[in-house]
Amino acid sequence: MPFSHKRVYLIPLDSRPVCYDMPRQLAEIAGLELGMPSPNLLGQLKAPANFKTLSRWIKNHLFENDPLIVALDTIAYGGLISSRVNEEPLDTLQERVAAFFKQIKVVSCFGFSSILRIPNYNFDEEEPEYWNQYGQKLYQYSAALHEHGHASAEDIPDWVLSDFMTRREKNFTLNTHYLSLLAVQQLNYLTYCQDDTGPHGLNVQEAQTLSGQIKKQKLENAHIQTGADEVAACMLARWMVLQQPEPVKVYAFYSSDTGRKLIAKFDGLPIETVVEKAIRACGAQVVKKSSEADLWLMVHTPDDRQGDHCGNEQARVNPDQLEEVLKVMDKALKLGKPLAITDVAYANGADPRLMEKLVSRFDDLTGLYGYAAWNTPGNAIGTSISMGLIRLMAERQQCFNAQAFCKLMLIRLADDWLYQADVRQTVRQTMNGAAKNGLPDEQLLNVLMADGLFLLKNRLGLEKQSVHCRYPCQRTFEIEVGLK
After folding, report:
1. CB 96: neighbour CB atoms within 10 A?
2. pLDDT tens-digit profile of 232-264?
3. Above 80 in pLDDT, residue 11?
4. In what order do the strands lie in the sheet with 339-343?
5. What pLDDT score does 64 carry?
6. Cα separation of 347 and 117, whole Å?
7. Labelling 424: which of 51, 147, 244, 255 has CA 20 to 30 A away?
8. Backbone angles phi, psi at 47, to 5 degrees
9. Are 238 and 191 in contact (CB under 8 A)?
10. How many other C-beta atoms are found inside a 10 Å radius of the C-beta of residue 349?
């Protein structure tokens, strides 16, 4: 059964590569055209989207009966990070949303919206300016208020606390409003994204309230998942999977039975719960027997402590776990079983020991159906499952683009392993906080990436592929691995 449409439209969260380029690359794997606004119409860090020109693009493109995946944060606030610093009144945001749905004509609309996060650090690059001084105190206040029902705010100025709570109320009201759009079928599916969270907090409480409303109204076409940047990829996979005549089933292996139950950094839930939520978000079913599955997912966890490459925190991983991952991959290749790997032993990058063993053991990585290890566990898990399912669906429809898939695999391995787990630390040490003109050195980046890229291109049959890396946001947190 072929896909119902050859073209799908996406309005992304913003112009960052994981939000903009990755969904396009995933669509290309399946021979689909992904229609998107130009990146310069979208938000970048705290700068919101260009609402006037974005509205013109919507008017000129979303008038045919094609499916649409839309980041509602872009429509209302101008982007994900803009949603955290936006100063506009609720009425303005609601008017933008109403105008958007009045304007479009699509066959189906999958929307996703973020629950305003509360990160546990003093840093304001993606938050209001007062986060630089009061971020951790606001996190602690929020967590205590949720967990115990009361909290002391004596170290937080009244104006900071007032602004913090006003932003939360505005975001929650808008998120609640989206449920009403499901009732009148202006939205056909709705995902709430809960990114960078702990086990407790007002954001967790809001997610629980929204979950209660979803259950009370018996809305089977809405759910909550951790992460945000990967959700467009999950929704694209979901659109493909739900067109299959039979349910698509996924079985998850874990490299550690204790590690699967650890609370995932930045997700606030056990790793296995994040995995199951992501599988369901992608439209697939979780099965308890590997023999029943259409796709295997190998989840490499820590044993009893998750690391964080950005925080210089080492994961605790024993050698048996590494062999378990390799054993499952060996078995999958021998049986011809589709296998994707999620590497969440660390947050913000791959487990270097696993990757060194993987590229040493296997000369050919083209049989791997997905890989991800970037940023939060939720980001990595959703990405690898999406890759695996989209490749599987493309093969079933006989429209699989192997070259496009290998290029995406090269990007993920280069970014998540070479850069995030190694080169980023070297760059930051070399810069000592800044480079000339305060910007990271792109030339140094490409020098440091060269040897690893040569190895990966060999493993993926892309020896002649030209690759250039750059800093799309002029900061060292993320890179763009550009392939010509």
Report:
1. 18
2. 999 999 999 999 999 999 999 999 999 999 999
3. yes
4. 285-286, 249-254, 295-300, 339-343, 370-372
5. 81
6. 17
7. 255
8. -75, 125
9. no
10. 28
Q: How far is C-alpha 55 from the geometric centre of its chain's CA atoms?
A: 25
Tell me the C-alpha distance between 390 and 32, whole Å. Answer: 11
| Of 236, 347, 358, residue with least CA distance to 298 | 358
DSSP secondary structure of 240-262? HHTTSSS--EEEEEES-TTGGGS
Is the pLDDT assigned to residue 191 strictly greater than 90? Answer: yes
Q: Which helix or strand (DSSP H or E) is residue 221 part of? A: none
3-class SS letters over 157-208: CHHHHHHHHHHHHHHHHHHHHHHHHHHCCCCCEEEEEECCCCCCCHHHHHHH
| Residues whose CB is less than 8 angstroms from the CB of residue 33 and which lie 6 or more positions away in sequence, other chains included | 6, 7, 8, 27
DSSP string over 131-159: HHHHHHHHHHHHHHHHHHS----TTS-HH
Domains and CATH numbers, the chain: 7-241 (no CATH), 249-400 (3.40.50)
Which of 223, 217, 169, 225 has its CA nearest to residue 197? 225
Q: Residues 439-468: pLDDT tens digits?
A: 789 999 999 999 999 999 999 999 999 999
End-to-end CA distance of the chain: 33
How far apart are alpha carbons 349 and 309 in whole angstroms?
Answer: 6
DSSP 117: P
Query: Quick check: pTM over 0.90?
Result: yes
pLDDT in tens, 118-163: 999 999 999 999 999 999 999 999 999 999 999 999 899 999 999 9
pLDDT of residue 438: 66
Which of the four pLDDT bands, split at 50, 70 and 90, describes residue 310? very high
Q: Dihedral (C-alpha) 354, 250, 23, 473: value to the nearest 10 degrees?
A: -40
